[in-house]
Write a structure and sequence with these properties.
The chain is α/β, with parallel strands linked by helices. The chain has eleven helices and nine strands. The radius of gyration is 19 Å and the shape is globular.
Amino acid sequence: MLSVIDAANSPSRDIGLKFRSPRSGPELELVDTLVKRTHVEEAQNYQVTIFREPKIAGGFPDLVIVIWDSLVADSWNSARAELDSNDFKLMHYLSVDRPVSKEHLRTLPFKSLDRSLDKLERAEMVEQVFDEWIARPYSCTFAAKHIVAVEAKMSNAWAALEQATKNIWFASCSCVVMPKLPRDEELMHRAASIGVSFFAESDGGFFDHHPLVCDEDFAPLSYVSWLFNDWAWRLHQKA
């Protein structure tokens, strides 16, 4: 199942997500083309949620495409829908540095630590073992298999690269789509060195070049990875 979410059709107030309203012009037409070309052939339990110009720390990516496993999310309880960005910041820390004592957590700049730990525990994402907190495995807490960030630009490839670079901190893949591939060898070398891919509109898009293999292990890269993971689930719950 594929769904597209933007400023016009999102219950953003309910899930803590905001969008930028699209601006008419050739870049909007390019984004429209990319959305129409997006296709992912996977198992029936995989869902595809496309966010158009969502607001995140650092800007508004043109597209964020989340491919996620509904079988993982089926076990999540309603308490998870109450989590916010502060809770996911703590969750991400616990998931990469575990186990952690509350004494140590109090030395870190987490807002409302006790409240977040309680919310995460009620959401069955963490558990307390003696005086330490442990995040539950990704296999039951993180449903996203890929998060693809796309920047669409008609020109100014260097600016596009700068924008795409900002998306690396949460996305498994970050790419730029332009009408034609840049011929600037320095730019293309720079993009390759930091993990950003460039595609021409005529190429057919990201998925024609990188078929999704959903048995790959994609671990969240930051709390924003968690946010997109849960936004996709919450929207699916409300559909």
